[in-house]
């Protein structure tokens, strides 16, 4: 078991949500806001079919295999006041590791040092992950849950099979471990089909939007 999570940087003031999935005390699935709008717009029956057939509180075998093939994901977080941030995370296929049916983990690589996502998680553990496959599968996977920041050495003590990146700049000093609260498909209907051109990864260009540019006449 993980017993050595990093201490929170700031007081955790946002209580975890418990109203997403049905329980004996609350047999309705989804948030109160979802249910209110489903009733207003007449989509309740369609939503119920989706909840009943698509929404799980764990990762099934197909989901686990799908995550193991992915090279990137989108991560949504918010701070204790609800200020949101979304970001892009990428790595080699399977860089997000499924630890078991109810937990997955991804490395925190060296970035700009702002710690926007980790800072939010330290205040509010709620996270939303979106995996999109623009190629063969042509579908997406939503995973929502609660995350914890864990030191690399501590996670490896419990999971020694985690790979070690060859490039020093890609070696994680810490990981984010997320408990899965709900997982469900993102329909392929509006996911475009893209194809890699086989080129090498681009060099980092952190000044793309702020460097001076010349204009042609």
UniProtKB/TrEMBL annotation:
Record-level Gene Ontology MF annotations: hydrolase activity
Domain Pyridoxamine 5'-phosphate oxidase N-terminal: 59-186
Protein name (record): Hydrolase
PANTHER family in the record: FAD-BINDING, PUTATIVE (AFU_ORTHOLOGUE AFUA_6G07600)-RELATED
Region (Disordered): 196-217
Keyword Ion transport tagged: no
Keywords on record: Hydrolase
Species of origin: Virgisporangium aurantiacum
Highest taxon, organism lineage: Bacteria
């Amino acid at each position: 078991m993980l017993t050595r999570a990093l201490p929170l940087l700031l007081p955790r003031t946002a209580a975890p949500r418990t109203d997403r999935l049905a329980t004996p005390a609350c047999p309705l699935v989804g948030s109160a806001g979802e249910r209110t709008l489903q009733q207003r717009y007449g989509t309740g029956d369609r939503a119920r079919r989706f909840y009943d057939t698509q929404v799980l509180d764990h990762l099934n075998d197909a989901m686990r295999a799908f995550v193991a093939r992915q090279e990137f994901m989108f991560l949504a977080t918010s701070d204790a006041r609800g200020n949101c941030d979304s970001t892009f995370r990428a790595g080699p296929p399977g860089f997000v590791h499924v630890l078991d049916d109810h937990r997955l983990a991804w490395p925190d690589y060296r970035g700009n040092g702002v710690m926007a996502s980790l800072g939010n998680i330290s205040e509010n553990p709620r996270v939303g992950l979106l995996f999109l496959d623009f190629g063969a599968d042509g579908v997406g996977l939503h995973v929502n849950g609660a995350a914890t920041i864990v030191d690399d050495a501590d996670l490896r003590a419990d999971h020694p099979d985690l790979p070690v990146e060859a490039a020093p700049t890609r070696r994680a000093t810490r990981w984010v471990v997320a408990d899965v609260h709900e997982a469900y498909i993102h329909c392929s209907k509006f996911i475009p089909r893209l194809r890699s051109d086989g080129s090498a990864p681009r060099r980092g260009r952190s000044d793309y939007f702020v460097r001076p540019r010349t204009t042609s006449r």
